[in-house]
Amino acid sequence: MDSAKLEKIKLIYEKGQLSNKAYHLQDALSYYLQVLHSIESLTNNTFDQLQCDVCLHISDIYIRQSDWIKANQFIEKAKLIALALHQKIGIARCLDRQGDIKRLNGYLKLALDDYQQSLDIKLKYLDDDDLEISHSYNNIGLIFNYQGQYKEAFDMYDKSVKIRLALLGDNHVDVAMSYNNIGLVYSRQKRYDKAFIMYRKSLQIRLATLDRNHPSIATSCNNLATVYKNLGKYNDALAMYNRALEIQLEIFGDRHLDVATTFSNMGSVYAEQGNYDQAQTMYEKSFKIDLQILGDNHPTIATSYNNMGSVCCYQGNYNEALIMYKNSLKIQEQRLEPCHPNIANSHNNIAFVYYHQSKYDQACQAYEKALHIYQTIFDDNHPILAPIYSNIADCYDQLNYNRQADNMRQKFRNILCHFKSQYSSNRSHINYILQSQESISLQSYRDRCDDKKQTNTRQKNHNQAMMQEYMQGYLKALILGKCINNLTRMMFIGPPFVGKSSIMKLFTGQQLDLNEPRTQIAHQSDRMTKINVYNIRNLKAGELYKVFGTSIKTSVESLMNDNDAQNINLCDQEMMKDDYQSFNPSSQMGMATSPNQDICNNNQQQSSTCNNSSQTLPDSGLNQKLYQDFIGSYLSSFSTDHFDNQFAKIWDFGGDTVYQVIHHPFISGNSIYILVFNIAQDINQKVVIRDGRILDMTYLQAIKEWLTLIIGNYNNQSEITATVKGTSAKYSLPIVILVASHGDCIRHEKEGIDRFNKFQDEIIHHMPSFRRNFYSSDIIFNCKPDDNNPLTQTQRMKCCYYLHCIIKQFVQSLPFMHKMVPIRWYTMAMLLHTSVMDDDSYQAVNASSKPLSSGKVDKIMTMQQIELLAKEYSLYNGNNDLKAMLMYLHDLGEIIFCQKAGDEGIIVTDVAWILCIFRAIIQLNHDTCPSGSLEIRSEYKMASQEGIISRNYIDYFLNKFNVDQEQKKSMIQLMEIYDIICPISNNGYDNSMNLVNNKIPHHQYLVPYLLQSDGKSFDLEGYHKSHWLYIGYENSDIPFIPNGIYYYLLSSCLKEWNNTKIQLNHQYAKYYLADDHHYIIFKKEESHIGLQYCYQRMEKPKSAHYIMNKVKLSIYTKLLHHIIKNMLLTIINKRLPKFNAIPCHFYIICNYCEKFTSIQDSYQSQDVNLTQCQHCNKHIEDHPSINDWMIYDEKLWTDRCYPNNRKLQEIDQHKLEMNPAAERCDKADIKRSFCTIADGIGVEWTNLAALLDPDIDVTVIKENNSQVFNQVISFLNKWYNKYPEASLGQLTTALKEIDRNDVVLKLGLPQN
Q1: Is the whole-model pTM more than 0.85?
Q2: Neighbouring residues of 794: CB distance < 8 A, sequence distance ≥ 6
Q3: Separation between Cα atoms, residue 1065 and residue 1084, nearest integer Å
Q4: Which of 47, 242, 396, 1057 could tie 405 with a disulfide, CB 3.0–4.6 Å?
């Protein structure tokens, strides 16, 4: 068989599996059917097992879609294949599916037979702890639960979950299913506190492992809503039901059993609220769907009859109600076991109608039938029996059976007393648990019909009781509470003037402004504080404090009813550790993590091994008033509606290069980036700005700058799998979504598509290493502000919706969005966030009070201040946890946490404020000088011409923001640490920011990014210039060295060389190295940085030789180019950690193809200057850059330094030819001079050696000779052997340059 066909079949099958897992059922079905068709078309069919599996997968899809006939067809097909293969487990799996269909159609006994047969087969052929056996236990447990056999159901679920936990761990969807099913049993037993805990555990796992719109999430929402309803929290219940309904309608459409169930559940809430018309509407919607799918003889239809009958009862329409109840009972008696609790409920409801029709005998008989069934299911003191006893007593009263009535009421009181004694710590729920029965008690009917105010009174009393429990719930949440992170950032990026702000406005529902100004960092910084967040689930604007508040309140409520929460399982604290590691920079040193917040289900078993002395709940007496204020007037104002929402903070920094230097504190790999480009412009064109000016960079260069900074900043090499538009693929983080603007400039749709594809291809071609970070959206926005015709509006809405769907899928795939976050971290976020809110926003939080005092939070704080704040609010759990908390908030963009500053860090709590300060200091428009003194205006002009600003200039703007001295100090420190400014050395001033007499000296700072591109070029007339040597990277590794990295390198060099003689020009910089008597010039290229040294030509040979030797020492001994290269490597590793394993090279430009080609890192003096170009493969001989930087050639240096020297050498050579004896004399004289020099020069011989030949290793000479005299003789002999043409004149010149004329006199030679 052709291997290509095999691979194709496997590939299609894998796509089907991915789609099935993502619940894209139609896509999965299509893939599976393709696989079956491909297998059946093969002549040599060896895929029988795969064919069987695919048939079962298809049957599962049809079961989910309630298409029983098609499901059965594929089950039978799978069974035939399994029989042919003698595959017993395959047959068992077919029986499981048969049982599913029978169970869903209400044939519980028949379903149980199938499940039991399947289990018997698996137990015979599999190990006892196999997952297949776990599935069978789970299925049987479902049947027992539906039949009201709760003990047996628990036994089955317990067996199932033990196997799953052992094999899958505690964070798997199958474990979540087990918890959910256990919750169903608790709910049927009216043990809603236990049910709530199980449902929450199940939901947390599902949220962490599944798509947010997965049907299992809807199931959890439905179940939690039912608990809320039974506890009288109707608004919360409706919110949960609505969330479930949104998911179900999106996935299934409006004809599905799950949708019908949710409609029915919502109807029950409306009925409880007395909104009977709305309840009837919901029940009828549910009934209509069920009837179409299930037919008229299904237990679910019986439930619908029962629900509609209840509404008729509440409305006083007893005849109609009786018909509905009897229809329900008829179906139930045919389809359910005789002792099923639903049959008891129907008898109870029929009795209720008879009672109100004054048919007391018939009512009493019906109640007794219900009681008999309940007694066979529940123990004698179960609370569900209490209202039945009470109702029978009422019937006996009407029949004048007083003794029997008293007996029934005594049983009622006995149950109530028993229940109170068992649940005394949870008294606020007693009345609700007794009154929240699925059956309708007579007393509850009287409450509804006689005086609806009593219902309101009970609700009010319940709310007051619940508020009293918030205190303990909140205290528990500080230690136990956790939630899944639901917040990230979405950042609009791209070149300047491409329409980022316009698209952001359209996306967030704002109007376009015809006179929209260019973005200045966070132009109108209130965007970041008033738009706040965007709800990824429903494309609506949100408010950040509500995001945090809702998460906190949800956690508090989940712990309020958990009486086992005091027994904290501290043995599993490692479960949270991995989640914290990604936020904690000190994780490798063994940070102290928080304990696991899961509740121990077996406290006695765990208690012997747990040591909980290190973690205790906060003292409830500590800051009691503070907690009460926080809970009563602040936290209680939030709703737990849509607890599973996900949000994104929207940022727009502006695309100008000047701002890229300040991006470093805000870039995150956990953000979603929207790269906007102008589709009307060619990517290789120069950037055109609004006033028509052309910038000195192309659109491609601007995009390279952005993407290298953002992608390189993320060090995690892991990948994610995301399904977008039905296609699953792997992506690298961070995700960059390509979006186009200026669609109004494109005439035809095809032209737009072609341009989009061309842009995408150009990016991949120039940045191949980033290809997995991109997603091409094919979205083209029309951003023309004055174009508001209906077609344009519709097109914009579609673009926003498509972009929203793409973002939603990627956000839900981010590992960051599945991290478990301690609730105390969100509490700290609220403390810091609400303290910087404006007054209007704060009034929206709470008009009555401000429990979170803004006086406790400054805009800039130290770690000590943050620690005190955390301790005051009982949020402190050790220094490592505090740092992890701050790193998490930093990653969200809530704060800036700079750990490099003194006292373990500086924290900026108001990000918008600091951005406004940056915007003021780093002016964008060079045509408009800031108002102020002439000195300030002059310095502003100097910044654009020289790239230098003074401390006085910075203070001028800081004073406008009322920044005090301590804040100034911290602000300057932050700007220096992030290399936004670089201090230029000033005599008498210490760069460590030490203050003298509390006065900061006027200091200058390097700000190269403020230079205008039309600056003057360097005047190098009269200087000898080297050829360019380049340092950098292969384009395939790092396609672009960002300007921010280049500016950082310039700052690092300034700090390294510590001098003020620096000149800047656009993309060029020139430093003077005073100790080495030469300049070093930098030139910025795309993936490379050019280096050139130059030094002044001197007329006098002595001066020229002196400078030449200093330069040689700098280049060949100090290896200046290696120092700069190592600086660049350090900066790349720090700022772009993604590339820290990529080697940095030296490069030259090929003489033939004029491309950058790498060379060796080092050469020896005897090496041949021969290099082969890696592009054109030609050999390059004697490349001048290598001679100037790598291979020292004395003759070449002499020729280049002294242009007239060659002529002098020719004259000397002529003299020697005329007088050969002179040459022999000179050579004899030089050898005789060695002893005289060695006798007189002393330890300064090393200076002479440095001038004559720095390559001769003086260290080795010293080690081999202990006497200075012998050292000098050894060196001079080595030197002469190396340079046999050397003359005595060279020796005397060198001696004079080191100021040893005394030795020259001893030689008997003239001094001049």
Answers
A1: no
A2: none
A3: 11
A4: 396
